[in-house]
Amino acid sequence: MNAVFPGSFDPITNGHMDVLTRASRIFEHVTVTVMHNARKQGRHLFTLEERLDILREATAHLPNVSVDSFSGLLVDYMRQSNKGIIVRGLRAVSDYEYELQIAHLNRQLGGVETVFIMAATRWSYVSSSMLREIASYQGDVTSMAPAATVSALRRKFAAEITNAASVDNPGSPR
């Protein structure tokens, strides 16, 4: 059976990778799908293409995992791509209530089932927003994210620091 692991993955964390790796052992094939939400346009740190590139690099070692993107309802993607199961990771009880509502909606709208995989305890505190925050202050996130994410965060924030310095001091060399 084929499964889809949807999310914004802005960026992917070791918690995501833990859930994905375990799902890849359960399902014949898992497609990591970056769901593009037009209402969140401009609120992501990484562009859609950047997130897809990071995911491709981070998942290259998993032979039965592919990367895709979709704009619209997840149930429509599931129907169009002939996928059977949605995989969602849970970090804490607080995640469960929200994810349960979404799972019920997806079943009601598209007859699609959701399988929850608990993230390993050591990743329960890690989120994409926390990674972005720590990295924005040049904090070390190497233990919380795959190498592809760490490199991308370093490039992104180095570029922002360089651009900010140029704006603050327009006469300085770049």
Give a description of the structure.
- The chain has 174 residues and is of the alpha/beta class.
- It has one domain (2-167): Rossmann fold.
- The protein is built from 6 helices and 5 strands.
- It has helices at residues 14-26, 48-58, 74-81, 93-110, 128-136, 147-168, and strands at residues 2-7, 29-36, 65-71, 85-90, 113-118.
- The protein has a 5-stranded parallel sheet with strand order 3-2-1-4-5, with helices on both faces.
- 30% of the residues are buried.
Full CATH superfamily name:
HUPs
Number of DSSP strands? Answer: 5
Mean pLDDT: 90
Number of helices: 6
Query: What characterizes the major β-sheet?
Result: 5 strands, parallel
Ends apart, CA distance between termini: 52 Å
Radius of gyration: 17 Å
CATH fold title: Rossmann fold
The outline comes out as globular
- SSE pattern: EHEHEHEHEHH
Structural class: alpha/beta
Strands of the largest sheet, in order across it? Answer: 3-2-1-4-5
Would you state the CATH class?
A: Alpha Beta
Percentage beta strand? 15-25%
Protein name: Phosphopantetheine adenylyltransferase
Keywords: ATP-binding, Coenzyme A biosynthesis, Cytoplasm, Magnesium, Nucleotide-binding, Nucleotidyltransferase, Transferase
InterPro entries: Cyt_trans-like, PPAT, Rossmann-like_a/b/a_fold
Function: Reversibly transfers an adenylyl group from ATP to 4'-phosphopantetheine, yielding dephospho-CoA (dPCoA) and pyrophosphate.
